[in-house]
Design goal:
The complex is a heterodimer of chains A (about 240) and B (about 350).
Chain A (H helix, E strand, L loop, with lengths): L8 H64 L1 H9 L6 E9 L2 E9 L17 H109 L1
Antiparallel strand pairs in A: 1-2
Helix pairs in contact in A: 1-2, 1-3
Chain B lengths: L8 H13 L4 H8 L3 H9 L4 H7 L5 H23 L2 H27 L4 H7 L8 H9 L3 H7 L6 H14 L3 H14 L8 H28 L18 H8 L2 H10 L3 H14 L2 H22 L5 H25 L4 H7 L4
The chains are: A mainly alpha (about 240), B mainly alpha (about 350).
Chain lengths: ~240, ~350
């Protein structure tokens, strides 16, 4: 509130400094927000493609496992699946996009060759191979989608935060600072006017006092002059 | 039911003929493709699967009930065939049915490996091979894979498994054990058997099965891009490929397809080979191989009605019936269309 600020020149200077800093910050944050939105749009396009691919891979994997369960039997498919205990490994690193730290997910041992899947080759069929392959592809798509969608989410959070900061500067902090600046300037002007008026008053009073003093002096002088002609007569 | 005694194909064939007549025909499959899983179970309840559906109905429902009932009925039927067979016929039949012993061993090993409870493992067994209930129960009760290997000592799977167990300990994956079990089954199919004129065609049938298995595996390896020598997975006993030939052909799938086309199987498989080249998918090809084997065994049964052929033909036809019904039930559950399901069926 403007009334809470002491209308001093020092405060005015401090507010002017803050206004300058806030305006600079506002411009920078606006540029950051626009940059983030552009990056976000790129990631959004990528995420849409990845999501579509994920859905297609899921459909395909479901279709293949359904066919494998239909033709080989649920018991055979479960058996082949239980022959594998080695899990894929996922490592996460991070990269920086315009100050936003987003994950970079690296996976290994997702896609396997026939001899790495655990089940024997001689007693199984191509249906099980194809179902396993389809699920490996699905898993890769999920990992990619996790990376892209997490990046998208983080970018979105950062855009929101930046937008809130820009708005806070634009609609709250800067207007308050301008108001305070104006208030202090008005107060200072008023004080200046009062000071001039006061000085004028003092000056007038002083002049009046001087005038009175001069008049008193003159009266004294007149009185003295009036006494002096008598003395001359005595001589 | 024994290795000894004289072969009794006449008796067994007569019984098998009667069982064969109970198999579902094309019209029944067509009806099933229009039903939901529960209706299929109900339909089965009114046929030869009644006992199994009733026995399992309180534990399972839907497609699982259908699948477990099919497996149990299959085991019962094949157990009957073994019970009726004597002498040389028993030898022929049991060697083929040992594929279920291989299946059961793999199921037990996988169960231990994945820490599945014993009841679930027991449920997944198909008791249609040579192993009796006692031996299978012993295997299920084994606490470690090593114990399973030890308990199989003295069977045809014992030595190969013991050898593969070292690889398993080194690598930690089941591949060596599973391959050892399947290889033992395939290589034992023809081992030490003598064939007369009537059974020579049956020998050709078994060879065809081995050839097809070798071709399928070579194509699967070629497509997977794995750096594996196909010779490691080569099964002895076929007539079409040697191990070294298969290694060379696996690196050139087109050549392999040409080789199959020019072989004695070429006429039966030409359509499937065309599809394989066009669609680049092994699934249709595998289906065609199964259909070719089924057709081959049926023809054998007609040519030599007093040999092992009609029995093997029935075994294959029964297996195919189980696969077809399961495909229909699972296909319906997964929402496949009637046409898609019918495409997957192999009906003769």
């Amino acid at each position: 509130m403007a009334e809470d600020v002491k209308p001093t020149r020092k405060n005015l200077m401090a507010i002017e400094d803050r206004i300058e800093l806030s305006e600079r910050g506002h411009d920078t944050l606006e540029q950051k927000r626009d940059g983030l939105i552009m990056e976000f749009m790129d990631i959004l396009d990528q995420a849409q493609d990845v999501r579509a691919e994920l859905e297609a891979d899921y459909e395909e994997a479901q279709r293949k496992i359904n066919m494998a369960r239909a033709m080989e039997g649920d018991v055979a498919v479960r058996g082949a699946a239980s022959a594998l205990q080695e899990h894929p490994e996922i490592t996460t690193q991070s990269k920086n996009i315009m100050g936003v730290v987003v994950p970079q997910i690296e996976s290994s041992r997702v896609k396997k060759t026939l001899d790495q899947r655990g089940y024997g080759l001689l007693g199984t069929s191509a249906r099980i191979d194809e179902a396993a392959e389809a699920y490996e592809e699905l898993l890769e798509s999920i990992i990619l989608a996790a990376e892209v969608e997490t990046a998208m989410k983080k970018m979105l959070e950062e855009i929101e935060t930046t937008k809130r900061r820009v708005n806070a500067l634009e609609f709250k902090l800067l207007p308050e600072l301008y108001e305070n600046q104006e208030y202090i300037e008005q107060k200072l002007e008023e004080q200046e006017r009062e000071e001039i008026f006061r000085l004028k008053k003092i000056k007038g009073k002083k002049e009046e006092e001087e005038k009175e003093a001069r008049e008193a002096e003159m009266k004294e002088a007149d009185k003295a002059a009036a006494k002096e002609p008598g003395a001359v007569a005595d001589d | 039911m024994s290795y000894t005694g004289s072969s009794n194909p006449e008796y067994v064939n007569a019984r098998v003929r009667s069982r064969r007549s109970q198999l579902y025909d094309e019209e029944e499959y067509r009806k099933l493709t229009r039903m939901g899983p529960a209706e299929i179970a109900r339909y089965m309840e009114e046929s030869e699967y009644e006992e199994e559906i009733n026995a399992l109905g309180s534990r399972y429902s839907g497609v699982d009930l259908v699948e477990y009932a099919l497996n149990r009925n299959l085991a019962k039927q094949f157990h009957d065939v073994l019970r009726w067979s004597d002498g040389r016929l028993y030898q022929f039949v049991v060697r083929y049915l040992q594929k279920f012993d291989a299946w059961n061993i793999k199921t037990v090993i996988r169960g231990i490996y994945a820490d599945v409870d014993k009841q679930s493992v027991d449920d997944d067994l198909i008791r249609a091979g040579e192993f009796d209930d006692r031996r299978l129960d012993q295997l299920v009760e084994a606490g470690t894979i090593e114990e399973v290997v030890n308990r199989l000592d003295g069977t045809m799977f014992g030595d190969p498994l013991a050898e593969a167990y070292e690889d398993y300990e080194e690598t930690g994956v089941l591949v060596p054990l599973e391959n050892a079990v399947d290889r033992a089954f395939y290589e034992n199919l023809l081992e030490g058997l003598t064939f007369d004129e009537a059974s020579a065609d049956y020998r050709d049938f078994l060879r065809a099965e081995i050839d097809f298995r070798n071709a399928r595996n070579a194509l699967r390896l070629a497509r997977s891009g794995a750096d594996i020598d196909p010779a490691e997975y080569y099964i002895e006993g076929g007539k079409l490929f040697s191990a070294s030939e298969l290694s060379t052909l696996a690196s050139n799938p087109d050549e392999l397809v040409n080789r199959l086309r020019e072989s004695s199987y070429g006429d039966d498989l030409s359509g499937a080979l065309d599809d394989l080249e066009e669609a680049n998918s092994l699934i249709g090809f595998e289906r065609a191989l199964e259909a070719a084997l089924l057709e081959y065994s049926r023809n054998l049964g007609n040519v030599h009605p007093l040999s092992v052929a009609p029995v093997v033909s029935y075994i294959l036809a029964k297996e195919r019936e189980v696969e077809n019904i399961r495909a229909i039930a699972r296909g319906r559950e997964a929402g496949l269309s009637e046409d898609e399901i019918e495409d997957e069926l192999v009906i003769l």
